[in-house]
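Thread: quick sanity check before group meeting

JM: Hey all, I'm pulling together slides for Thursday and realized we never actually wrote out the predicted structure for the chain we discussed last week. Dropping the sequence here so it's in one place. If anyone has concerns about the input, flag it before I start.
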Amino acid sequence: MLNRIAGLLIITVSLLIAWFVMEFKQFANTPMKLSKEGVYYLLEPGTSLSGLARDLMDKGMVDSKLYFRLLARWQGSAAKIKAGEYHLQSGMTPNALLALLVSGSVTSYTLTLVEGWNFLQVLSAIRQQSALKQTLEGLSDDQVMQRLGHPDEHPEGRFLPDTYQFPRGTSDISFLNRAYKAMDQRLKKEWEKREKGVPLKTPYEALILASIVEKETGYPSERTQIAGVFTRRLRKEMKLQTDPTVIYGMGEAYDGNIRRRDLKRDTPYNTYVHKGLPPTPISMPGGDAIHAVMHPGKGKSLYFVAKSGGQHYFSNTLREHNNAVRKYQLKR
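JM (edit): ok, ran it. Output follows.
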Protein backbone atom coordinates (compact mmCIF):
# COMPACT_ATOMS: atom_id res chain seq x y z
CA MET A 1 0.00 0.00 0.00
CA LEU A 2 2.78 2.38 0.96
CA ASN A 3 4.66 1.56 -2.21
CA ARG A 4 1.54 2.32 -4.18
CA ILE A 5 1.08 5.72 -2.47
CA ALA A 6 4.78 6.52 -2.94
CA GLY A 7 4.48 5.63 -6.58
CA LEU A 8 1.46 7.90 -7.02
CA LEU A 9 3.32 10.72 -5.28
CA ILE A 10 6.30 10.31 -7.57
CA ILE A 11 4.06 10.30 -10.62
CA THR A 12 2.16 13.35 -9.35
CA VAL A 13 5.36 15.28 -8.59
CA SER A 14 6.82 14.32 -11.96
CA LEU A 15 3.68 15.51 -13.71
CA LEU A 16 3.77 18.80 -11.77
CA ILE A 17 7.43 19.31 -12.61
CA ALA A 18 6.77 18.51 -16.26
CA TRP A 19 3.82 20.90 -16.28
CA PHE A 20 5.91 23.62 -14.61
CA VAL A 21 8.82 23.18 -17.06
CA MET A 22 6.43 23.25 -20.01
CA GLU A 23 4.67 26.37 -18.75
CA PHE A 24 7.97 28.04 -17.85
CA LYS A 25 9.38 27.40 -21.34
CA GLN A 26 6.15 28.61 -22.88
CA PHE A 27 6.36 31.82 -20.81
CA ALA A 28 9.98 32.42 -21.82
CA ASN A 29 9.31 32.01 -25.54
CA THR A 30 5.82 33.45 -25.94
CA PRO A 31 5.66 36.98 -27.39
CA MET A 32 4.93 39.64 -24.79
CA LYS A 33 1.80 41.76 -24.93
CA LEU A 34 3.09 44.76 -26.88
CA SER A 35 1.46 47.07 -29.37
CA LYS A 36 2.08 46.58 -33.07
CA GLU A 37 4.42 49.59 -33.09
CA GLY A 38 6.26 48.36 -30.01
CA VAL A 39 6.83 50.46 -26.90
CA TYR A 40 9.63 52.51 -25.35
CA TYR A 41 10.39 51.23 -21.88
CA LEU A 42 12.41 53.24 -19.36
CA LEU A 43 14.26 51.19 -16.75
CA GLU A 44 15.26 53.61 -14.02
CA PRO A 45 18.69 53.27 -12.38
CA GLY A 46 18.55 51.29 -9.15
CA THR A 47 15.45 49.28 -10.13
CA SER A 48 15.57 45.77 -8.61
CA LEU A 49 14.72 42.60 -10.51
CA SER A 50 11.54 42.29 -8.43
CA GLY A 51 10.63 45.89 -9.22
CA LEU A 52 11.21 45.30 -12.94
CA ALA A 53 9.08 42.13 -12.94
CA ARG A 54 6.30 43.86 -11.02
CA ASP A 55 6.31 46.86 -13.38
CA LEU A 56 6.21 44.66 -16.48
CA MET A 57 3.22 42.78 -15.05
CA ASP A 58 1.46 45.99 -13.95
CA LYS A 59 1.82 47.30 -17.50
CA GLY A 60 0.33 44.07 -18.85
CA MET A 61 3.46 43.06 -20.76
CA VAL A 62 4.05 39.74 -18.96
CA ASP A 63 1.69 37.33 -17.16
CA SER A 64 3.90 36.23 -14.27
CA LYS A 65 6.29 38.13 -12.00
CA LEU A 66 7.56 34.85 -10.59
CA TYR A 67 8.40 33.31 -13.95
CA PHE A 68 10.17 36.47 -15.10
CA ARG A 69 12.35 36.55 -11.97
CA LEU A 70 13.10 32.83 -12.27
CA LEU A 71 13.98 33.24 -15.95
CA ALA A 72 16.41 36.07 -15.19
CA ARG A 73 18.11 34.07 -12.43
CA TRP A 74 18.19 30.86 -14.49
CA GLN A 75 19.87 32.79 -17.35
CA GLY A 76 22.29 34.53 -14.98
CA SER A 77 20.92 37.89 -16.19
CA ALA A 78 19.70 39.27 -12.86
CA ALA A 79 22.92 41.12 -11.95
CA LYS A 80 23.73 42.17 -15.53
CA ILE A 81 20.62 44.19 -16.39
CA LYS A 82 21.46 47.79 -17.35
CA ALA A 83 19.26 50.84 -16.79
CA GLY A 84 18.16 53.01 -19.69
CA GLU A 85 15.41 53.44 -22.26
CA TYR A 86 14.77 50.50 -24.58
CA HIS A 87 12.60 50.01 -27.62
CA LEU A 88 10.62 46.79 -27.14
CA GLN A 89 9.53 45.56 -30.55
CA SER A 90 6.31 43.71 -31.30
CA GLY A 91 6.85 39.95 -31.06
CA MET A 92 9.59 40.23 -28.42
CA THR A 93 9.66 37.38 -25.88
CA PRO A 94 10.78 37.57 -22.23
CA ASN A 95 13.94 35.74 -23.30
CA ALA A 96 14.66 38.40 -25.92
CA LEU A 97 13.78 41.19 -23.49
CA LEU A 98 16.33 39.99 -20.95
CA ALA A 99 18.99 39.70 -23.66
CA LEU A 100 18.24 43.30 -24.67
CA LEU A 101 18.41 44.59 -21.09
CA VAL A 102 21.73 42.83 -20.55
CA SER A 103 23.18 44.19 -23.81
CA GLY A 104 22.56 47.80 -22.74
CA SER A 105 21.48 48.71 -26.28
CA VAL A 106 19.48 51.69 -25.13
CA THR A 107 17.58 54.04 -27.40
CA SER A 108 19.75 56.91 -28.62
CA TYR A 109 18.67 60.49 -29.18
CA THR A 110 20.48 63.17 -31.15
CA LEU A 111 21.01 66.89 -30.84
CA THR A 112 22.84 68.96 -33.43
CA LEU A 113 24.81 72.05 -32.47
CA VAL A 114 24.90 74.18 -35.61
CA GLU A 115 27.98 75.99 -36.89
CA GLY A 116 27.67 79.71 -36.23
CA TRP A 117 25.28 79.43 -33.28
CA ASN A 118 25.95 81.53 -30.21
CA PHE A 119 25.78 80.22 -26.64
CA LEU A 120 22.23 81.48 -26.15
CA GLN A 121 21.09 79.37 -29.10
CA VAL A 122 22.98 76.35 -27.74
CA LEU A 123 21.18 76.58 -24.39
CA SER A 124 17.84 77.05 -26.13
CA ALA A 125 18.34 73.87 -28.18
CA ILE A 126 19.35 71.92 -25.09
CA ARG A 127 16.25 73.05 -23.18
CA GLN A 128 14.01 71.94 -26.05
CA GLN A 129 15.46 68.39 -26.05
CA SER A 130 13.14 66.51 -23.70
CA ALA A 131 15.41 63.45 -23.54
CA LEU A 132 18.05 65.49 -21.71
CA LYS A 133 17.82 65.88 -17.94
CA GLN A 134 17.52 69.63 -17.31
CA THR A 135 19.69 70.97 -14.49
CA LEU A 136 20.80 74.39 -15.76
CA GLU A 137 17.50 76.27 -15.69
CA GLY A 138 17.92 79.72 -14.16
CA LEU A 139 21.72 79.64 -14.10
CA SER A 140 23.79 82.47 -15.56
CA ASP A 141 26.48 81.84 -18.17
CA ASP A 142 29.14 82.18 -15.46
CA GLN A 143 27.36 79.63 -13.28
CA VAL A 144 27.09 77.19 -16.18
CA MET A 145 30.84 77.46 -16.79
CA GLN A 146 31.45 76.94 -13.07
CA ARG A 147 29.39 73.74 -13.22
CA LEU A 148 31.57 72.63 -16.15
CA GLY A 149 34.71 73.25 -14.10
CA HIS A 150 35.84 76.29 -16.13
CA PRO A 151 34.79 79.23 -13.96
CA ASP A 152 37.05 81.84 -15.56
CA GLU A 153 36.11 81.16 -19.18
CA HIS A 154 33.58 82.89 -21.41
CA PRO A 155 31.20 80.26 -22.87
CA GLU A 156 30.99 81.67 -26.37
CA GLY A 157 32.60 79.45 -28.99
CA ARG A 158 33.73 76.81 -26.49
CA PHE A 159 31.53 73.98 -27.83
CA LEU A 160 32.15 72.10 -31.05
CA PRO A 161 29.28 72.12 -33.56
CA ASP A 162 28.37 68.52 -34.34
CA THR A 163 25.56 65.96 -34.05
CA TYR A 164 25.77 64.20 -30.70
CA GLN A 165 24.04 60.95 -29.70
CA PHE A 166 23.04 60.23 -26.12
CA PRO A 167 20.61 58.04 -24.12
CA ARG A 168 17.56 59.45 -22.33
CA GLY A 169 18.40 60.80 -18.92
CA THR A 170 21.78 62.26 -19.91
CA SER A 171 22.13 65.57 -18.08
CA ASP A 172 22.46 68.85 -19.93
CA ILE A 173 25.74 69.51 -18.13
CA SER A 174 27.14 66.14 -19.32
CA PHE A 175 26.10 66.99 -22.88
CA LEU A 176 27.82 70.38 -22.69
CA ASN A 177 30.92 68.85 -21.15
CA ARG A 178 31.18 66.44 -24.07
CA ALA A 179 30.88 69.25 -26.64
CA TYR A 180 33.41 71.36 -24.68
CA LYS A 181 35.99 68.56 -24.68
CA ALA A 182 35.41 67.94 -28.40
CA MET A 183 36.14 71.61 -29.17
CA ASP A 184 39.19 71.64 -26.89
CA GLN A 185 40.63 68.57 -28.63
CA ARG A 186 39.90 69.88 -32.13
CA LEU A 187 41.43 73.28 -31.37
CA LYS A 188 44.61 71.78 -29.88
CA LYS A 189 45.00 69.42 -32.83
CA GLU A 190 44.66 72.24 -35.38
CA TRP A 191 46.92 74.57 -33.38
CA GLU A 192 49.75 72.02 -33.38
CA LYS A 193 49.59 71.84 -37.19
CA ARG A 194 49.18 75.59 -37.87
CA GLU A 195 51.23 77.31 -40.53
CA LYS A 196 54.31 79.23 -39.44
CA GLY A 197 53.85 82.98 -39.31
CA VAL A 198 50.13 82.96 -38.52
CA PRO A 199 49.64 86.17 -36.46
CA LEU A 200 47.83 84.42 -33.62
CA LYS A 201 49.47 84.04 -30.21
CA THR A 202 47.26 81.40 -28.63
CA PRO A 203 44.70 78.74 -29.57
CA TYR A 204 42.06 81.01 -28.02
CA GLU A 205 42.92 83.81 -30.46
CA ALA A 206 42.52 81.26 -33.26
CA LEU A 207 39.12 80.35 -31.86
CA ILE A 208 38.08 84.01 -31.84
CA LEU A 209 39.14 84.56 -35.45
CA ALA A 210 37.53 81.27 -36.54
CA SER A 211 34.23 82.39 -35.01
CA ILE A 212 34.34 85.54 -37.17
CA VAL A 213 35.18 83.57 -40.32
CA GLU A 214 32.27 81.23 -39.53
CA LYS A 215 29.81 84.13 -39.40
CA GLU A 216 31.15 85.87 -42.50
CA THR A 217 30.38 83.13 -45.02
CA GLY A 218 28.23 80.08 -45.50
CA TYR A 219 30.40 78.90 -48.40
CA PRO A 220 33.14 76.45 -47.35
CA SER A 221 35.23 77.36 -50.40
CA GLU A 222 35.53 80.97 -49.17
CA ARG A 223 36.66 80.31 -45.63
CA THR A 224 40.38 80.18 -46.35
CA GLN A 225 40.11 83.33 -48.51
CA ILE A 226 38.32 85.26 -45.78
CA ALA A 227 40.77 83.94 -43.19
CA GLY A 228 43.53 85.21 -45.50
CA VAL A 229 42.02 88.70 -45.60
CA PHE A 230 41.78 88.92 -41.82
CA THR A 231 45.28 87.49 -41.38
CA ARG A 232 46.77 90.17 -43.66
CA ARG A 233 44.81 92.91 -41.89
CA LEU A 234 46.10 91.71 -38.52
CA ARG A 235 49.67 91.72 -39.83
CA LYS A 236 49.26 95.27 -41.12
CA GLU A 237 47.55 96.32 -37.84
CA MET A 238 44.45 97.32 -39.79
CA LYS A 239 41.05 97.21 -38.15
CA LEU A 240 39.17 94.04 -39.08
CA GLN A 241 35.96 96.00 -39.77
CA THR A 242 33.70 92.97 -39.78
CA ASP A 243 29.95 93.38 -39.33
CA PRO A 244 29.29 90.15 -37.34
CA THR A 245 31.37 91.49 -34.44
CA VAL A 246 29.36 94.71 -34.43
CA ILE A 247 26.11 92.72 -34.40
CA TYR A 248 27.34 90.57 -31.52
CA GLY A 249 28.28 93.67 -29.53
CA MET A 250 24.81 95.16 -30.10
CA GLY A 251 23.16 92.19 -28.42
CA GLU A 252 19.37 92.43 -28.24
CA ALA A 253 19.49 95.93 -29.75
CA TYR A 254 20.19 94.40 -33.16
CA ASP A 255 16.99 94.46 -35.24
CA GLY A 256 18.36 93.12 -38.51
CA ASN A 257 19.99 96.34 -39.67
CA ILE A 258 23.35 97.96 -38.97
CA ARG A 259 23.26 101.75 -39.09
CA ARG A 260 26.13 104.21 -39.36
CA ARG A 261 25.80 105.04 -35.67
CA ASP A 262 26.17 101.34 -34.84
CA LEU A 263 29.52 101.24 -36.64
CA LYS A 264 30.69 104.10 -34.41
CA ARG A 265 29.34 102.72 -31.14
CA ASP A 266 32.18 101.90 -28.78
CA THR A 267 31.63 98.31 -27.66
CA PRO A 268 34.47 95.84 -26.99
CA TYR A 269 33.31 93.90 -30.05
CA ASN A 270 33.19 96.78 -32.53
CA THR A 271 36.07 96.04 -34.92
CA TYR A 272 35.35 99.30 -36.77
CA VAL A 273 36.41 101.13 -33.59
CA HIS A 274 39.06 98.82 -32.11
CA LYS A 275 42.08 97.21 -33.77
CA GLY A 276 42.80 93.53 -33.39
CA LEU A 277 40.51 90.73 -32.30
CA PRO A 278 37.43 91.14 -30.10
CA PRO A 279 37.76 89.87 -26.49
CA THR A 280 35.91 86.56 -27.07
CA PRO A 281 34.53 84.45 -29.91
CA ILE A 282 31.20 85.59 -31.31
CA SER A 283 29.87 82.16 -32.33
CA MET A 284 30.66 78.45 -32.44
CA PRO A 285 33.07 77.89 -35.33
CA GLY A 286 33.08 74.55 -37.09
CA GLY A 287 36.17 72.50 -37.83
CA ASP A 288 36.55 73.97 -41.33
CA ALA A 289 36.65 77.55 -40.02
CA ILE A 290 39.20 76.58 -37.36
CA HIS A 291 41.34 74.90 -40.01
CA ALA A 292 41.05 77.96 -42.26
CA VAL A 293 42.50 80.42 -39.74
CA MET A 294 45.41 78.04 -39.09
CA HIS A 295 46.00 77.77 -42.85
CA PRO A 296 44.81 81.11 -44.31
CA GLY A 297 44.58 81.60 -48.06
CA LYS A 298 47.46 83.24 -49.90
CA GLY A 299 47.10 86.44 -51.88
CA LYS A 300 46.95 90.23 -51.50
CA SER A 301 43.26 90.88 -50.94
CA LEU A 302 42.43 93.09 -47.94
CA TYR A 303 38.72 93.60 -48.52
CA PHE A 304 35.62 91.64 -49.48
CA VAL A 305 31.98 92.46 -50.07
CA ALA A 306 28.94 90.21 -50.36
CA LYS A 307 27.40 89.73 -53.79
CA SER A 308 23.74 89.03 -54.45
CA GLY A 309 24.08 85.24 -54.18
CA GLY A 310 25.79 85.41 -50.79
CA GLN A 311 29.29 84.80 -52.09
CA HIS A 312 31.93 87.52 -51.89
CA TYR A 313 34.02 89.69 -54.17
CA PHE A 314 37.60 90.11 -52.92
CA SER A 315 39.63 93.27 -53.55
CA ASN A 316 43.31 94.14 -53.14
CA THR A 317 42.88 97.90 -52.84
CA LEU A 318 40.43 100.26 -51.18
CA ARG A 319 39.53 101.82 -54.57
CA GLU A 320 38.65 98.40 -56.00
CA HIS A 321 36.66 97.60 -52.86
CA ASN A 322 34.67 100.85 -53.04
CA ASN A 323 33.81 100.10 -56.67
CA ALA A 324 32.66 96.61 -55.64
CA VAL A 325 30.51 98.09 -52.85
CA ARG A 326 28.82 100.42 -55.35
CA LYS A 327 28.26 97.55 -57.76
CA TYR A 328 27.09 94.82 -55.38
CA GLN A 329 25.67 96.68 -52.40
CA LEU A 330 24.48 100.05 -53.68
CA LYS A 331 23.59 98.69 -57.16
CA ARG A 332 25.17 101.68 -58.90
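AS: nice. Residues 239 and 274 are 7 Å apart (CA to CA). The chain has three domains: 2-103, 108-187, 195-328.
JM: adding both to the slides.
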